[in-house]
Amino acid sequence: MNESIGIVGGGLLGLSLADRLQKLGHRVTVLEAAPHFGGLAAAWTLPVQASRPCEGSGSSTPTRPFTGSARQEVTWDKFYHVILQSDAFTHELLRDLGLGNDFVGVETKTGFYTDGRLYSMSNSWEFLKFPPLGLWSKFRLGCTISHAAKVTDWKSLEKTPVVDWLTTWSGRKTVEKIWLPLLRAKLGDSYKIASAAFIWATIQRMYAARRSGMKKELFGYVRGGYGLIVDRYTERLAERGVQLRSGSPVARIDSADDGPRVELTSGETLTFDRVICTAVPPQVPKLLPTLTDEETALLNGVTYQGIVCASVLLRKPLDCFYVTNITDDWVPFTGVIEMSALVDRAEFGGNHLVYLPKYVAPDDPVMTEPDASIRERFTAALERMYPHFSRDDVLTFQIARVKHVFAVPTLNYSERLPPMATSLPGVYLVNSAHIVNGTLNVNETLQLAARAVDTVTSPLPVPA
Questions:
Q1: Which of 75, 84, 127, 341 has the lowest CB atom count within 10 Å?
Q2: Nearest partner of 447 among 461, 460, 459, 435, judged by Cα
Q3: Residue 150: enclosing H or E segment and its boundaries?
Q4: Virtual torsion, Cα 144, 148, 149, 152, nearest 10 deg
Q5: Tens-place pLDDT, residues 42-94
Q6: Is 38 helix (H, G, I), strand (E, B) or coil?
Q7: Residue 179 DSSP label
Q8: What does the alpha-carbon distance between residue 169 and residue 186 come to, in Å, rounded to a whole number?
């Protein structure tokens, strides 16, 4: 049946849902609050500063003219993303968009910063030489990863706290030295309520290539970044008749005799046969105030982590590692992602792009901390971690904040997840919280859209 379907949210999840539903013959409208589409996969512009602010002050007073790259700005992903060679749904999308040949796979290196020193952990030999752990601890750590890669019953892991499971397999010393700092870095205090499924999902993604028969997992990107992917995607959808409305924030979603209604903050009201809301659970009760108390309780029961992420454009590299894991708790960010160790520097005007993420609870004070204060703390930490680093090398320091990024996989998470079909006829919820056996990434998001289509197109109940 050809139906009118409204999708609230124009991230990659909303666009992918629109793609699949339009191919089934439905008339689709996508409503996005932001002036652009893409959500967490959107790109932004990093202006290459013509002058450097006073060190440590956050002031914009010029101190000397810029003498680096001639490019005046760089456009790249607002948050860091990587495409694995085994990301089947992402590669399928790239082929559909005519971008399959623009994927570049790279063999990257991994760093580990612990006890004030930076170590390479890029192969088995470097793992065996890793000084912070003894041989027996390394053996147990390796067994932990190998075992998790082979586990298929992820639901059984939902019943075990992640720290208990890791202690059983890796031992208390390895947990205190390695696992616990990494858990705190990603989950904050929420690690105490997380299940072992969190570690399982992380390891499963890294081992996906080997399970599919590939000899090794290559990390990669698309020339032009996700900005190009989103632009090409929206162009194709518009050509096929999908109505794409950016700058259209939604105030309320409700049901009526003639179908679900969407009221925009502008006062405009749209009526559809079905409505799919992709907003994260903490935002849903405000958009759908007529949900039952039970539905609202389930939505409020989902714990989310947010992120404060600095994009730092540099004249010189920090090191050779794409990812540097950090276990020292004095470091104010939770990892170093040196994108230019993966992506051709020509994409950045010959410069080096580094992401400094800080995963926090939505109400963490850093969410409202002034940019100048964050810049000072983060650059001071870089000076301590990398003796060769100089603030003179910083061309751009730009900060992005999102309060709700991914849901924490708590104990028995899948059993307490809000269902996609709501009590309002024709109104559905599909969001990142419905990724129950994986980590939040683009491939999982596209897979979720494919899985949700059957639910959001199921026959509607006949009115009494």
A1: 75
A2: 435
A3: helix 135-150
A4: 160
A5: 999 999 874 444 333 333 333 333 334 456 899 999 999 999 988 999 999 99
A6: strand
A7: I
A8: 20
HSE-up of 415 (CA within 13 Å, CB side)? 10
SS3 label, residue 80: coil
* Region 372-384 average pLDDT: 97
Distance CA 453, CA 345 (A): 39
Contact 109, 320 (CB under 8 A): yes
Tell me whether strands 274-277 and 427-429 are parallel, antiparallel or unpaired.
parallel
- Which of these three, 168, 185, 211, is where a domain ends? 211
Residues 121 and 206 in one domain: yes
Residue 193 to residues 196, 358, 412, Cα–Cα distance (Å): 10, 19, 10
Residue 128 has what pLDDT?
Answer: 82
Q: Judge contact between 204 and 197, C-beta under 8 A.
A: no
Please report which residue ranges of 359-459 form alpha helices under DSSP H: 371-385, 442-456
Residue 322 in any domain: the answer is yes
- Same domain for 424 and 282: yes
Q: Measured between alpha carbons, how far is residue 311 from residues 47, 359, 396 in Å?
A: 11, 14, 8
The structure tokens listed for 106 are: 């790279």
Phi/psi at 262 (5° precision):
-120, 120
d(CA 354, CA 171): 34
In whole angstroms, give the CA distance from residue 445 to residue 452.
Answer: 11
Same-domain pairing of 291 and 431: yes
3-state class (DSSP) for residue 235 = helix
* 15 lies in some domain: yes
Q: How far apart are CA 203 and CA 182, in angstroms?
A: 13
* Amino acid (1-letter code) at residue 268: E
pLDDT of residue 62: 33
Distances (CA, A) of 170 to 145, 151, 178: 9, 16, 10
Distance CA 183, CA 327 (A): 9
Helices (H) and strands (E) in the chain, counts: 15, 20
Residue given tokens 């170093």 in the structure block = 336
The DSSP code sequence of 248-273 is --EEEEE--TTS-EEEETTS-EEE-S
Same domain, 116 and 199: yes
* Angstrom distance (rounded) from CA 180 to CA 172: 10
Task: Say which amino acid occupies 237.
Answer: L
pLDDT at 26: 97
pLDDT average, residue stretch 187-201: 91
Is position 287 within any domain? Answer: yes
Give the residue numbers spanning the domain of 163: 110-211
Query: What SS3 state is found at 60?
Result: coil
Q: Find out whether 284 and 277 touch, Cβ atoms under 8 Å.
A: yes
Distance in angstroms (rounded) separating the CA atoms of residues 215 and 84? 13
Residues 330, 271: one domain? no
Does residue 43 sit in helix, strand or coil? strand
For residues 86 and 443, give the distance between their C-alpha atoms in angstroms, rounded to a whole number. 9
